[in-house]
Amino acid sequence: MSVALVTGSAGLIGSESVRHFARLGLTVVGIDNDMRGYFFGADGSTAWQVEQLKSELGASYQHHSIDIRDRDAVAALFTRYGKDISVVIHTAAQPSHDWAAKEPFTDFDVNAVGTLNLLENTRLHAPDAPFIFTSTNKVYGDTPNRLPLVEQETRYELDPAHTYYEGIREDMSIDHSLHSIFGVSKVAADVLVQEYGRYFGLKTAAFRGGTLTGPAHSAAELHGFLAYLMRCNMERRVYTIYGYKGKMVRDAIHSNDVVTAFEAFFRAPRVGEVYNLGGGRQSNCSHLEAFQLAEEISGVEMRHVYDEQARTGDHQWYVSDMGRFREHYPDWKQQYDVPAILREMYEANAERWTPQA
How far, in Å, CA of 248 to CA of 137, rounded? Predict the structure, then answer.
């Protein structure tokens, strides 16, 4: 038996990974205890996705409601499957930099200690398995906000002559910046993943994600920019813009494009790698531009209010340069852009995201 062990298996990237690697013929062992429901309430719960995965995949999917902070439970699971584990895909996290400030211990224990538990058990029980980690662009802190941005009608932008115009590379420093508590815990996890590669020789990769998105997102205000925006539009909710006049820019990468990148690494793994992962110049937008796209797709006017106070450490402009990953994996192709992502969200959630009575 060849096993793909996926943490956060009912989340956006986790569930996409479960389906993708099951289609490749692996038995998928999923770990998810719906902490997202604790973080974000009913909107963020992934319980519905667990039931879908069980129904769709049957015996190909084995679910375990384990907390990755529980060292003994994690060790027992790795002991059970051992060297049958062909890949570890670690997507479980506390994913919000706003939420982290409320419970710093919880944030750090889930993001950093949980990652250490998984890495150490991979080293002990499945040392040949590639270890794929969903890190975040928040490891760069607010350093991107020092870029010389130019205000345009609907967005902030860089001069085309700037070295980072095509996107931010992995050579941007992660030091001497404001990270948020969440950013700190993810830096710790990111560096652990690198070190288990460099020090112990494991085949590890930290993918520093921008806006990872898709129709399976359990969208909540504190996490899930495009999905939450589309949900607000469809349910006639009021969306709050926090700062930067709504002109802050995000690049967005579809969850399917993410997991095909994971597959590329799985098939030809490397040691201690770091890759920026995002939509790049092909797929990015400001909040104002996303509003316009959502309105065009749904035919419904976007309801919103503006709060001048930007979120602490929030990026004013972030576009990823995936040149390093493309150099290592030239056959990987990005399929989606922002309009296609939003349209798919609209069509996939037409029944779930209906106007509230």
Answer: 15
d(CA 222, CA 225): 8
Phi first, then psi: what are they for 336, rounded to 5°? -115, 155
Q: What is the rounded distance in angstroms from the CA atom of residue 349 to the CA atom of residue 121?
A: 38
User: Residue ranges of the domains in the chain?
Assistant: 3-353
Q: Residues 112, 118, 119, CA angle at the centre, nearest 5°? A: 85
Enter the pTM of the model. 0.94
| CATH fold of 3-353 | Rossmann fold (3.40.50)
Distance separating alpha carbons of residues 81 and 254, to the nearest angstrom: 31
Q: For the purposes of burial, counting CB atoms within 10 Å of the CB of 114, is it exposed (0-12), middle (13-18) or buried (19 or more)?
A: buried
Contact (Cβ atoms closer than 8 angstroms) between residue 353 and residue 237: no
Count of positions (residues) in the chain:
357
What residues contact 184, with CB distance under 8 A and at least 6 apart?
108
**What pLDDT, on a 0 to 100 scale, did the predictor assign at position 151?**
97
* CA distances to 188, 228, 239, 262, 317 from 43, in Å: 28, 10, 14, 27, 27
* Burial of 62 from C-beta contacts in 10 A (0-12 / 13-18 / 19+): middle
Query: Residue with structure tokens 């799985």?
Result: 266
Cβ contacts of residue 38 below 8 Å, gap of 6+? none
- Tens of pLDDT, residue by residue over 94-114, are 988 889 999 999 999 999 999
- For the CA atoms of 292, 296, 297, 298, the dihedral, rounded to the nearest 10 degrees, stands at 100
Contact 241, 306 (CB under 8 A): yes
Q: With beta carbons less than 8 A apart as the criterion, state whether 300 and 129 touch.
A: no
Backbone angles phi, psi at 347, to 5 degrees: -70, -40
Residue 48 structure tokens? 């519905």
Distance CA 62, CA 85 (A): 13
The string of pLDDT tens digits covering residues 134-145 is: 999 999 999 999
